[in-house]
């Protein structure tokens, strides 16, 4: 976790409160689909055994089938690591000063944006669906002042607690700002 | 009808292997660059490399006894899918 956060430039007195990724079940669901795609080769093998056993012994058909099956499995396996990278490099970091939003759209497309806590006006958490309700994961929408676009924490674990933590940090940030203002005015 | 040696079938396979190797390398570089210090990313990367090596090893093992120089008859007019397993080297 530290290695991921080390890429972001934090202020000297800024502390990381929490860093979040999507709930692991999101990746496990994708991994299950990839596993099914991989197991399709086993199904294809048995179909060939039942309907065209000659193909498995032919001096030309056999190597062609092995090459095709191997290429297919390598592509599926590559799909697995590509999905993992996409899952793992999407993250949201909550610090005492701001929220960092890192989105890995594809291998060559990455967006890092940040939002000052002082800009936050409204925070909404949302859990929708049977599985998200059972496993307690969902969305946290962060609305900023004067901005149409919202920051969205997607499919993060325990969105209610995340929402509460953001609101608490926003409140602390406002108190610090109010406390610092008279001192600045006196100068 | 014309004939080609069987090793021509390796060309598309090598293209796929090259593509997978390149993209996998880039994905692993991304993991290392942005978050390699976690146990989870290490385990997943290790499992991926072991799996890819396993697929390549099994493929190599299954193809050890293949005569790659044997000619393959290619008929531009389809003769039916069931002929696939009956390929044989053309008689001299």
UniProtKB/TrEMBL annotation, chain A:
Keyword Cell membrane included in the entry's annotation: no
Keyword terms of this UniProt record: Membrane, Transmembrane, Transmembrane helix
Pfam families: bPH_2
Transmembrane residue ranges: 25-51, 63-82
Record-linked InterPro entries: YdbS-like_PH (IPR005182)
Domain YdbS-like PH: 105-165
Domain of life: Bacteria
Annotated protein name in UniProt: YdbS-like PH domain-containing protein
Source organism of the structure: Candidatus Uhrbacteria bacterium RIFCSPHIGHO2_02_FULL_60_10
TrEMBL record, chain B:
Bilayer-crossing regions: 6-26, 38-60
UniProt superkingdom: Bacteria
Keywords, ordered alphabetically: Membrane, Transmembrane, Transmembrane helix
Membrane found in the keyword field: yes
Protein name: Uncharacterized protein
């Amino acid at each position: 976790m530290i290695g991921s956060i080390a890429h972001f430039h934090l202020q000297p007195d800024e502390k990381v409160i929490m860093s979040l990724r999507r709930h692991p079940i999101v990746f496990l669901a994708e991994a299950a689909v990839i596993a099914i795609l991989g197991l399709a080769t086993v199904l294809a093998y048995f179909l060939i055994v039942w309907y065209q056993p000659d193909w498995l012994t032919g001096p030309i058909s056999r190597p062609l089938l092995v090459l095709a099956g191997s290429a297919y499995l390598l592509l599926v396996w590559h799909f697995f690591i590509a999905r993992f990278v996409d899952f793992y490099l999407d993250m949201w970091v909550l610090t005492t000063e701001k929220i960092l939003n890192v989105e890995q759209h594809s291998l060559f497309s990455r967006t890092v944006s940040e939002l000052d806590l002082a800009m936050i006006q409204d925070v909404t958490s949302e859990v929708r669906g049977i599985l998200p309700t059972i496993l307690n994961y969902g969305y946290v929408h962060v609305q900023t002042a004067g901005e149409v676009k919202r920051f969205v924490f997607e499919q993060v674990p325990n969105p209610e607690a995340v929402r509460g933590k953001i609101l608490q940090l926003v409140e602390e940030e406002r108190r610090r700002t109010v406390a610092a203002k008279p001192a600045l005015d006196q100068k | 009808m014309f004939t080609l040696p069987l090793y021509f079938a390796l060309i598309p396979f090598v293209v796929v292997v090259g593509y997978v190797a390149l993209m996998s390398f880039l994905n692993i570089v991304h993991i290392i660059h942005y978050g390699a210090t976690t146990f989870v990313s290490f385990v997943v990367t290790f499992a991926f490399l072991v799996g890819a090596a396993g697929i390549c090893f099994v493929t190599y093992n299954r193809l050890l006894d293949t005569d790659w120089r044997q000619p393959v008859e290619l008929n531009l007019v389809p003769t039916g899918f069931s002929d696939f397993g009956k390929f044989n080297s053309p008689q001299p």
